[in-house]
Design goal:
183 residues, alpha/beta, Rossmann fold, 4-stranded parallel sheet, 7 helices, binds 4-nitrophenyl phosphate
Length: 183
């Protein structure tokens, strides 16, 4: 199967974040960001949390998610996303929230799902150091060479939600391996 090559700049960013967290004896803080924070980013949060639990390293992580659009603030993830995720064993119980300026201080790595989320993250980052934390989630989906984003499923049919899970599982698995190897 064709694989997407991991960008060495991104690998370095992840390693540096792991090194910093280890040196400060604190969990690595990872934030997933999409638009509504009811489909893609809470799914990434749930997948990463479960994978870390299965690997027995959940205490080494702090995982959260948020979005740029506040129209669903306080809501559980979209029912279609929750149903698709549950079929794969992920219980999504996150409550939607919008991004805060303090997120750029409190998280080591900040993953955007698509080009629009990434543009918004770069615009919102208060410092160059904060911008350095931003990573395209799809860049870690090595088994989805065709995916240049985690596409917004909100207006799509059911297939869109399964595709989101496929890409996110791929990306989270890459992230977990990079982190485990450097912890
Ligand atoms: P998400 O999906 O960004 O993956 O949570 C969306 C959720 C809601 C809307 C758009 C995208 N919306 O327009 O309400």
């Amino acid at each position: 199967m064709k694989e997407k090559k991991l960008n060495p700049v991104i690998v370095d960013k992840i390693r540096k974040a792991v090194d910093d967290a280890r040196a400060e004896q604190r969990p690595l803080a990872v934030l997933f960001v999409c638009l509504g924070n009811i489909c893609r980013s809470p799914a990434a949060d749930g997948i990463m949390t479960k994978m870390a639990q299965e690997a027995g390293i959940e205490e080494k992580f702090m995982v959260d998610s948020c979005g740029f659009y506040g129209g669903h603030a306080g809501d559980l993830p979209d029912l279609r996303m929750r149903k698709a995720a549950l079929q794969r064993g992920y219980h999504l119980d996150h409550r939607s929230r919008t991004i805060r300026p303090s997120d750029f201080d409190n998280f080591d790595l900040i993953f955007g799902m698509d080009a629009s989320n990434l543009d918004d993250l770069h615009d919102a980052a208060p410092t160059l150091e904060a911008e350095e934390k931003i990573i395209p989630m799809a860049s870690l989906a090595v088994n989805h060479p065709e995916a240049d984003s985690v596409p917004d499923p909100y207006w799509s049919g059911a297939d869109g939600f399964y595709l989101v899970l496929d890409i996110l599982e791929d990306a989270c698995s890459t992230l977990l391996n990079e982190i485990k190897d450097n912890m």
